[in-house]
Each structure stands twice: as structure tokens, then as C-alpha cells.
Amino acid sequence: MTTTASTRVVVTGRRDATRLPHAGPRRREELVSWAFLTPFLIAFVLFLVWPILHGIYLSFTDQSLTGAGGGFVGFANYAEALGDPVMWQSLWNTLWFTLLSTVPLVLISLLMAALVDRGLPGQWLWRLSFFMPYLLASTVISQIWVWIFNPQIGAANNILTALGLEPIAWLQNPDTNMIAIVIATVWWTVGFNFLLYLAAMQNIPPQQYEAAALDGAGPWRQFWSITLPQLLPATVLILLLQVLASLKLFDQAYQMLGGVASDTTRSIVQYIYEAGFVSYRFGYSAAISYVFFALIVIIGVAQALVVRGKKEL
Amino acid sequence: MAPPLDLSRRQFLAAASLATGSALLAGCAPGTAAGSTTQTLQFWHLLSGGDGVTMSSLLDQVNAAQDAYRIRPTVLAWGSPYYTKLAMAGTGGRAPDVAIMHATRVPGWAPGGLLDAWDIDRLTELGVDESTFPEPIWKKGFAGDRLFSVALDAHPFVLMYNTDVCDAAGQLDSDGRLLPTSSPEEFLEQLRAVAGTAEGHGLSYGYLGDGAQMWRLFYGLYAQHDLAIDLPVGGSMGIEKDAAVEVLEFMRTLLDGEIAAAQNDYGTAVAEFATGKSGMFMTGVWELRTMQNAGIPFDATMIPTIYGTPAVYADSHSFVLPHQSAADPERRDLTYRFVADMLKGSFGWAEAGHVPAYLPVTSSPEYADLIPQAHYAEAAEHVVYDPEAWFTGSGSNFQGEFAAAVQGVLLRGDDPGSAIDRFERRVNALLAQPNPADPEGTWKP
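^ Those are the sequences you sent over. The predicted structure of the assembly is below.
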């Protein structure tokens, strides 16, 4: 929206400048565009810029949620964060979850899109059922999966015992709880990536497949040589969105474990929440969130560099 | 049907937004009751489920008994979010007149000025003083020499037992009460006997992913060694490791698949006992209603004293005065009256399973007839609370840290000694942090 508005201002501005200096209409148009921008700008400054700046300020104080403190403590919070094993563990958990969830979320969605695009009858039904979980709130997802993973009466263990395997305390056992959260997350969000892939596949002109078929290319050949290469831009987009979404891990993990801090699933966002809203240490909580912010910037830049490098090839 | 209003679209929108706006504002306004002399007091608590129903009937009772005040309760979900909201309301200057806190959370709160101290003289005038409470419960309300919380109850961790199953196992005496045991071996023997007659396990104990459940049993048994965990500000945790390891090993023995299921979460344990499949159940007294509604034959008693000193892990729901910078003396006065009225009317609270803290209630003949409550009322004399520090108490992350360190021992048989070492390291890290309510450490009780 905003880009269209500003482009238009620039274009009319140039036109006006080539004519006689006649400031009236141009200023008017500028005013109008600012008027349209204002509601967004107010929200942007109030809910994004100001909190970011205030957060940086807080991270240098010992402000408490209880109203106590607030004195300037320099880099003490950052020093504490960098030496805090729980912070490092939560950062690692977050990265581990990102890795564990991103790979299946990309591969499974690609597979689902390919199946729906090429072969399966009743496309609309598949499209609907693959996408449906994505529409549910994280609270609903958590409730469903807490029941599925119930150690005594859950569906997951019923399947295991039917296969002659030992039941597992999925969510309570520190060896399996991260996997359980990954499984639930994949089921929940794979539909979104699936939709992006499906749209990209349906954009590939059918003539290319016809031409390939005439040259004797089978379905596999067509998939490898036509579909996959043309999905590259979609894959880059999906990877970017997925990594960012996975790094934000909090709600489903928090809810599925009933708010209990587990060393193996506590994400950095949960630790920020705990420091601020359970231990009431706003200053420290703000400092951890900026450490995390720095990490996201690094990952973002790295990703951008890789993508740019690929384009130049 | 009413005649259609002749409004233009704009008029309609304006009227509608005005109506919504004033409704919203009315919702924000501090309560003003119908009668001009009746004051409405804001009361926050975290009691839901069966406890919530009981609490609201108690409130109806005190509201109906007088005209001076009316209580307007706000119920929030149990756990750390409750305390976060209460703290924020206080910081924002909109604290309720009175609130319920777990007594174990008060030490973290009092220093920051989030709570106002109770005027002991005023309470005494209303018939609420040291002599009307069991000693450990009254003392728990103090920080230094100021009283910050007045307990409504103690809710101990107790042992419920199915009388049919235990009788069949020959574990009841002639009065139909569970035979006492006084050593770990005796208790295990009793549990095995009960397991032999129970359809499911001898004992239901849910702990998976539930730090509070693990901590309640552990700390009660640890305290039976006549020991307490010490958490000095800025120091390191004082824990008797041998005793702690002994207790963990005992807990591990319980979870052998015969006495108790090796992997049970809280809800499943409740279900197992409520359906009569197990012989005993370790839980808080707040499950009493659930079991009565389930219609199983059961009784309850203190967790047996198997390590020498009677000690029962418990917490108390306590009344506190969230800090108000300019407290209205009249409302404050009514708040004192309300608390006194609640304590005196807390017999109804006993019906929900809790042990009322107010002695005139528990020493009444009606209470002696209240079974099984009267069978564990003695617990109030032996209550042991969480060790005091800003990060301990119900719904705090201390119990979560305990779970993170100890669950592996119970679930997979990890080494109890290294679990205690790990717990100690984590607690020492917390001890090194300043109390966020008093970061400069300037508060003196």
C-alpha cells in the first residue's frame, strides 16, 4: 500500500517539476499521502519503534516489574546474560527446534503439494484438509496434542503398543519432548508452506510439461527438470519465513508442557518471558531479548547473502 | 414490536459507539453499590474449579450477613500469571482492596512494598490474633516483626486411601483407619500389600511434568528428617545431601510399576484413584471434593511419619493487602472486617478439604464430625512451607527447577546424587540474583 502511494507522489512530482513551478497541487497530493500514512505511522511508532527504543533503555537498568529498581546498571545485564547457562541452553533449544522443524516443514509440504498438483483426485478436499490445521489457534493445537501424547490413554502410545513397542511419556520425558513439539508444530503449520508450494506449481505453464512429454520425459524427469528448478524462488521464500517462524517458538511449547520449564524445550522467547513475568526482572529480560535480536539479525543477513550469492551464479 | 427508530446511518453509528463507550467505561469504574452506605470491596483470588464454587458461596454468605460492604471478586487462573497480574495492578496503582496469595509467595513480595502490613491491634479487636491460629501458620504471615499475610487455611499434601481396597489388604484397624507405619520399610510393605488387592496400582502418584507434585512429596519427607533447606540471601543453598538422596531413592522405589505406575501425570493419577482402581493416593486436600463426587469409599490421613519427625508439606491461602499509596481508611476498615468475617465463616472452606487456619473453627464439635477432614486436621500443627526466598513458593520457577533436576531420577533411574548437585547449582544461580522487588537490597523487615 505505502509503496504505491509514495511512487505516485514521486511520479507526479517529476511531472510538475518539468512544468512551471506550481507548488499547489503537488503539496496537496503530498499532504493527502501523509494523511493516508498517518494511522499506520502512529501505530508503527507507538507499538514498534518506541518499544524497541524503550527496551534498549530497559536492558541497561535493573527495572523490576514490581516498580522497584530502575537504576542504571551499565552492561551488567548483558554480562550476566552471556554468562548464564540457562540463556545459552534456551538459545540452543531454539536453534535445535528451528533445524528440526524447518527441514520436515519444507520437504513434507513440497511432497504434499506435488501429490495434490499432479495426481490425487478430489483436489479441493486435499487442499482443504492439508490447510485446515493452520487455521486453528495454538491453544487448540496444544490441547489436541496433549491428549494424543498422554502417556496412559493417548493415541500416540496406543499406536506404539499396537506395534509391540514400549509406551513413551512423550511430553514429560526430556529425551522426547522436543520431538513431540516438533511433530505437533509440523502438523499445525505445514499447510501454509503447502499452499505456497501449490500456488508456485500451478504457476508453471502446462506447455512446458507438454513439450517435455513430447520429447519423451516421464513424470520423474519432468519433476526434477521442470518443477523443482522453477520452485526455487518459492523455496527461498518458504525457508526465510519458516526459519523466522520457528525461531519464535513459544506458545505451543509453553502450552503443551503446561507452562513447566523443561531444560530441553525452554526456548529463548520462553526464557525472556520467565525472566520478565515470572521473576519480574524486566531489565534482564530486555537484555536477553536484545541478545536474541542480534542473533536474528546475523541469521537474516547470512540468509540474504546466501540468496544473493545464488542469484549471481 | 417497538416502532423502528428513524435514524440516519451516521446517527445510528454515533449512538452505538456512545453506548458501547459508556458501557466500557462503566466496566472500568470502581464499584459503586446500590445502597449509598454500602462500600464495594475489590477482592482478587485464584480459586477456580471446586474451590472457586466454595469460595463464591462463602462470599455470598458474608455479603448477605451485613450491609456495610459488598465483595466484588475477580477470579484469575492459578499460577505465575496470577502473581504477575497482581504485581502489575499494584505497580499501576490499581491494586484491589484485598487479595489471596499463597503464603509461600509473600517473602518475595513484602520487600518491594507491593504489600501493606496488617495492623495486628485492629485484627485483635476483631478476634483474630496469635491465639486463634496454629503456631507455624500464624508465624508464616510475618516478615521480620510485621504481619503481611493472614492465613485462611492450610492445604497440606496428604494420603487418601480407598477403605475397601485397604480393608481387603488387611491394612485397616478396628476403627477403619489406616494402620500407622513409622519407617520406609513398613510403609513400602503396607503399599505392596495394598497393591496386591488393588485392581490397578497400590498407590496413585502423578508427577510427570509437574514440579509441584515432585516437590511436595520430596520436601515433606525431607523435613521428616528434622531438616530444612536453607536459602540465605547472596549465599548458597544449605541442603543435607544424604537425606535428600535417601528421599529421592525412596520416591524412586515407589514408582516400580507395582506400588505406583512408573509414568503417571497428575490427571491420570486422579482418575485412577477416583475410579477405585488404586488403594492410595498422594495429593493435596483440594482433591477431596473430586473423590467425594466420584462416590468411592475413602478416608484420608497425614503422609505417614517414616523418618522420625512429623512434617507435612503445605501452603496456605492467605489474605494480603496489596499496597495502596493512599488507602481509604474506611475501605481499609471494612477490609479488616471482611477478613475477620471470612475466617469466622471458614467452616464452609473446610468442606472443600482445606484445613481452616482459624482455630475456633477447627476446634468446634461440627468440625470433629467432618470426616475425613478431621482425620488430617492434625497436619496443621506440623506444616512445613517452602524454604523462604524471592523465587520460591507455589507457582514459582523454583519447583520447576526441582522438576528439571529430579524428574530423570524418577522416570529413568538417573543418579539421585548428581540430580541434587544439579538442583543445588541452579538454586545457587538464583540466589546470586537480586530480589527483583528490591534490587538494591535496601529493604529491612
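Chain A touches chain B through 34 residues (CB under 8 Å). Chain A has a mean pLDDT of 87.

Shout if you want it in another format.
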